[in-house]
Design goal:
The chain is mainly alpha-helical. 67% of the residues lie in helices and 0% in strands. The chain is built from 4 helices and no strands. The protein has helices at 2-9, 12-30, 36-43, 52-76. Helix 2 packs parallel to helix 4 (52-76) and helix 3 (36-43) runs antiparallel to helix 4 (52-76). The mean pLDDT is 91.
């Protein structure tokens, strides 16, 4: 069962979608006022036609990228991009 799950996640299309989701999440997190939760809410309709593993992978990548992207504006501008990066300021 674990091997089956890994085979689904390691497909080239899923890895490409994770990379795109991470980049979009970093962009959302770097802009002050746009949070990782907002990115997930905006991209949820995009995942309706995807397979379940691809949709969950994209949403997870968006969240992780959004939280990581919030550190960019917190470090460079001293403005937290996301609520999670307030301590970095």
């Amino acid at each position: 069962m674990i091997i089956q799950g890994l085979m689904e996640v390691l497909q080239p299309m899923t890895i490409l979608l994770v990379a795109i989701g991470t980049v979009v999440g970093i962009i959302f997190g770097a802009i002050p006022g746009l949070t990782a939760t907002m990115a997930i809410a905006m991209f949820l309709p995009v995942t309706y036609n995807m397979a379940s593993t691809q949709g969950i992978s994209v949403l997870t990548a968006l969240y992780i990228g959004g939280i990581s992207g919030g550190l960019i504006s917190a470090i460079l501008l001293n403005i937290p991009g996301t609520p999670a990066s307030i301590a970095t300021c």
